[in-house]
Amino acid sequence: MSIINYASREIQFKIVYYGPALCGKTTNLGYIHRRINPQNRGDLVSLATAADRTLFFDFLPLNAVVIKGFVTKFQLYTVPGQVIYNATRQLVLRSVDGVVFVADSQWEKMEENVESFSNLEDNLAKQNISLDEIPYVLQYNKRDLENVAPLNYLEYVLNNRKKRVQSFEVVSSTGQNVFASLNAVSQILLHKFSQQSEAPKSSPAPVVVPVPAPALQREGNQV
């Protein structure tokens, strides 16, 4: 659920990066944090456990969408990938507005991907949230490796619901499609918020993340 700060005239949205251990969630957030202008983002905070960690930071997009006179701000979180930290996953998912599910494209990780996706659905259900109702996109990460499953197989395994969602082939270590997937889920949740609020029913502008132009050209992202 979005947080409205009347003092700063901001609406804060929470996006959680979810997926199995070592799938690239931390790499995603680290890359995004490095590419955003320091003036537009907060510190990258790490909450470490014995063998895993949760990261989060917030940022203000370059062309932040204004809704009812409030500027939109985003909070990005990762969840720990290991199953033993499921209580932490549930805590991080509390009041979530959008999800980026990060799957590891390697063949040997398919079972972990499916288990993590099912776990996401179960943990949302405990908050009385249906996965079909929340904005989310799929990342098929590590596409630069040799032993990856083909795209159509990943779609069959993870994007097989009645309502298909946007998916992206990602190499989080280089930044390929990292911002494309973030922009996609941001636009979906802003559109949903605009329709549910009393704001005029107009489509929100694209969320432009403040990164240097050469980086955007190199990634080939649309912003």
Radius of gyration: 17 Å
CATH class: Alpha Beta
Order of helices and strands: EEHEEEEHEHEHEHH
In the CATH hierarchy, the third-tier topology is known as Rossmann fold
Number of helices: 6
Amino- and carboxy-terminal Cα gap? 25 Å
Instruction: Tell me roughly what share of residues is in helical segments.
Output: 25-40%
Low-confidence runs: 199-203, 210-223
CATH homologous superfamily, by name?
Answer: P-loop containing nucleotide triphosphate hydrolases
Number of strands: 9
CATH architectural name: 3-Layer(aba) Sandwich
List keywords for this structure.
nine-stranded mixed beta sheet, 9 strands, 22% strand, 223 residues, Rossmann fold, alpha/beta
Describe the structure.
β1 and β2 form a beta hairpin. 31% of the residues lie in helices and 22% in strands. The chain is built from six helices and nine strands. It is α/β, with parallel strands linked by helices.
How would you sum up this structure in a few lines?
It contains 6 helices and 9 strands.
Draw up the topology in text.
Blueprint: E1 3-5, E2 10-18, H1 25-35, E3 45-48, E4 53-59, E5 66-67, E6 70-78, H2 86-93, E7 98-104, H3 110-125, E8 136-141, H4 151-158, E9 167-169, H5 178-196, H6 213-219
Parallel strand pairs: 2-6, 2-7, 7-8, 8-9
Antiparallel strand pairs: 1-2, 3-4, 4-6, 5-6
